[in-house]
Design a protein that fits this description.
Blueprint (H helix, E strand, L loop, with lengths): L4 H14 L22 H12 L13 H24 L12 H16 L5 H25 L4 H17 L12 H14 L14 H27 L8 H18 L15 H26 L4 H26 L6 H19 L3 H6 L3 H12 L6 H33 L1
Length: 421
């Protein structure tokens, strides 16, 4: 027998609330589906009002500008032209050893390029363009090898040049954040994130497979570097003092704080919570600690070269953990929930997310899990009366995460702006 709807909702929502994208929970094949009990009309009215409270949208930062997307499409078109030149240079008795038909890809690619130019400049459009570029560059490697218009030495030199540019980016970034500081901090973090930890795949191996790998690495490395530079430039005001010292100092403090909350010996796999709401709440708290250990490890590894990104990720986890921990303590030590208390808790949570939605970018990023927390509460509340405790916990977590995110963001922004003045 499979999981019941309630088990899917509460445990699955718990994994999302904890921030564990790769979290899994063992199936409980002995658990039976529970049919919700009938409730008095007055309770039905309260629940109807509860479900009728919509969760405000919390917009994320999308720093892609029109010129940025246009440059990415131009790079894609340039690689298409490279394929075209190579195909024309190929002798009639040679074939292109490619996984895709290069002539068909070229025809379709030109149409895709026209479509990409019609997109609004967004992260999604940029990501789609980068995917097309990746495919095109690989085919360009195969075609160039067949036409003998490229050679291993020349490709390796270009790859080294791209690698050098990527590795020099951190030392060329001064963190002179323009106003508004919250947007600039988010944009510079996006610049840091755009750069891969390493450029390229092994350059040895048989030709033309090696040509395809190296050509693709060059194209993606150039794209990542251009993305990073454009994001950095959009965040920079050369007339203001550098905020690098403040960003690094706050990030190091956040790392120490997070490490204290998510110790290295956190359980690798929280125990299966079964169908007990109390166990489910404790499961979410344990899973959040486990996720925090991963956040801390990542921050330790890259805080030297990506301080802004590390800072925002640490702030987001701290607000999530503190909110979840406080909500868990409140519900586990409090009275059993009633329809009235559920309605009040959701109202408070919706109000908190509404305040979050009107706040600056750092606050919205730091408290971004709050809307999902409220939705997970709705899912639990619609299942059975036994889901009420988890629903109350989720609503309170949503309220607390939103408010703690706003408070942390306000403190960070004040610290950075104080150094600029």
């Amino acid at each position: 027998m499979g999981w019941s709807r309630r088990r899917l909702l509460t445990v699955g929502a718990g994994v999302a609330l904890a921030g564990c994208n790769d979290g899994t929970v063992e199936r409980n094949d002995d658990y039976e589906t529970v049919t919700p009990a009938s409730v008095p009309n007055e309770t039905e009215d309260l629940l109807a009002e509860l479900y009728g409270l919509s969760v405000p949208a919390v917009d994320s930062l999308d720093p892609v500008e029109a010129g940025h997307l246009e440059a990415a499409v131009d790079q894609f078109v340039g690689v298409l032209e490279e394929i075209d030149v190579a195909l024309e240079a190929i002798d009639g008795d040679r074939i292109v050893e490619s996984v895709e038909d290069p002539e068909q890809f070229l025809a379709n690619g030109r149409q895709r390029a026209r479509t990409l130019r019609e997109y609004e400049p967004t992260e999604r459009a940029l990501s789609r363009t980068t995917r097309e570029l990746r495919r095109a560059a690989r085919i360009a490697g195969y075609a160039g090898a067949a036409a003998e218009t490229i050679d291993r030495t020349g490709l390796e030199e270009k790859l080294r040049a791209v690698t050098d540019a990527v590795e020099s980016f951190p030392t060329e970034t001064d963190y002179q954040l323009q106003q508004p500081t919250d947007v600039s901090l988010g944009t510079i973090a996006r610049a840091e994130e755009a750069l891969p930890s390493s450029i390229g795949e092994p350059t040895d191996g048989e030709w033309p497979e090696a040509a395809a790998r190296i050509r693709r690495s060059i194209a993606i490395g150039r794209r990542a570097y251009d993305d990073a530079v454009r994001f950095r430039d959009a965040a920079t005001d050369h007339s203001v003092q550098s905020s690098e010292r403040a960003v690094r100092s706050i990030a190091i403090g956040a790392l120490k704080e997070a490490a204290a909350r998510a110790p290295d010996d956190a359980d690798e796999e929280p125990p299966n919570p079964g169908n007990d709401p109390t166990a489910q709440i404790r499961y979410v708290l344990a899973a959040t600690e486990r996720n925090g250990a991963s956040v801390v490890d990542d921050a330790r590894e890259r805080i030297g070269t990506q301080p802004a990104r590390s800072l925002l990720e640490l702030l987001e986890w701290l607000a999530r953990y503190d909110g979840i921990a406080a909500a868990a303590e409140s519900v586990l030590s409090g009275a059993d929930p009633t329809p009235e208390s559920l309605l009040d808790a959701k109202r408070d949570a919706v109000d908190a997310v509404d305040r979050l939605a009107g706040s600056d970018y750092v606050a919205r990023q730091t408290g971004r899990i709050a809307p999902n927390a409220i939705r997970s509460g709705d899912e639990a509340a619609t299942s059975t009366t036994n889901g009420a405790s988890y629903a109350l916990f989720a609503y309170r977590a949503g309220e607390l995460v939103a408010d703690k995110g706003r408070n942390r963001a306000a403190w960070v922004t004040r610290r950075i702006e104080a150094q600029q003045s």
